[in-house]
Amino acid sequence: MDNLHQFKKVALDAIQKSSNRIMHYFQNLPKIETKIDKTPVTKADREAEEIIISTIKKAFPSHGFLGEEFGKDKEDAEFIWIIDPIDGTKNFIHGLSFFGTILSLKYQGKIILGISNIPAIGELLYASVEEKTTLNGKPTHVSQIQKLEDSFVNFNPSKFDTPRFLNIVKAVDKRVTNMRGFGDTYGYHLVATGRSEVFFEMGPKAWDISAFQIIIKQAGGTYSNFEGDEYALGETSLATNGLLHEEMLRIIKNS
């Protein structure tokens, strides 16, 4: 794709500008609000998304957007940017570093570019259909662990009140010795960089996970929902080093 390089350049610029604004508010927050779905939102969330949209619109006025804070714009456009300005807002509010900005570009129903940036710890993942995944500009890859028993598994604990999810966690826990609840963006970063073999969650929206479809794949891993659909954008999410994916799908199906 001839214009992918330009998409990358503008996207990284938007991420950098939004990150500067986010870090301005980190551990120095003004008023915190609660949205209709009872999730928190801050001035940083809204301003970061506005910065990303305005930066991209200036370069590509015909493109559409789907953002967590401002919803849809030009949803029938050929190119759609999907934005989560702060994934892990609760961590951000409490002064914890494990939050990130997620940005992806969808073309003809598929994600062709993905970025995930955790500014407080200095980790930026990038991947596209033409480039393998990089961490801060350097190649990164999933691990080569072949046995679930030897793996480090992470999950998002936000759905512990869902019986099915609790059953899955219990079933996986019986098989592994290293299991933690590093949720949100950081869980995917751990898989993409070979520091964890599995991350799973229930309840994510498109903006929470779209970038990781391509980031995990281009790092050598496998991404899908709990039914094995590699292109699903919501409800359930499973990211692995690829070697453990089918086994995880079986455990999930039988739980």
Give a nutshell description of this structure.
The protein has 255 residues and is of the alpha+beta class.
Description:
The chain is an alpha+beta fold and 255 residues long. It has an eight-stranded mixed beta sheet, sandwiched between helices. The chain has helices at residues 4-25, 43-59, 89-93, 163-173, 184-192, 206-218, 245-253, and strands spanning 32-34, 40-42, 64-67, 71-73, 79-87, 100-107, 110-118, 123-128, 131-135, 138-139, 152-155, 178-180, 198-202, 222-224, 236-240. The model has no long low-confidence stretch (mean pLDDT 95). Helix 5 packs parallel to helix 6 (206-218). It has seven helices and 15 strands. The chain folds into two domains: 3-139, Fructose-1,6-Bisphosphatase, Chain A, domain 1 (2-Layer Sandwich), CATH 3.30.540; 148-254, D-Maltodextrin-Binding Protein, domain 2, CATH 3.40.190.80. The longest helix has 22 residues, at 4-25. It holds the Pfam family Inositol_P.
Provide key terms for this protein.
single chain; 255 residues; alpha+beta; Fructose-1,6-Bisphosphatase, Chain A, domain 1; D-Maltodextrin-Binding Protein, domain 2; 2 domains; eight-stranded mixed β-sheet; five-stranded mixed β-sheet; 7 helices; 28% strand; globular; hydrolase; Inositol_monophosphatase-like; Inositol_monoP_metal-BS; magnesium; Inositol-phosphate phosphatase
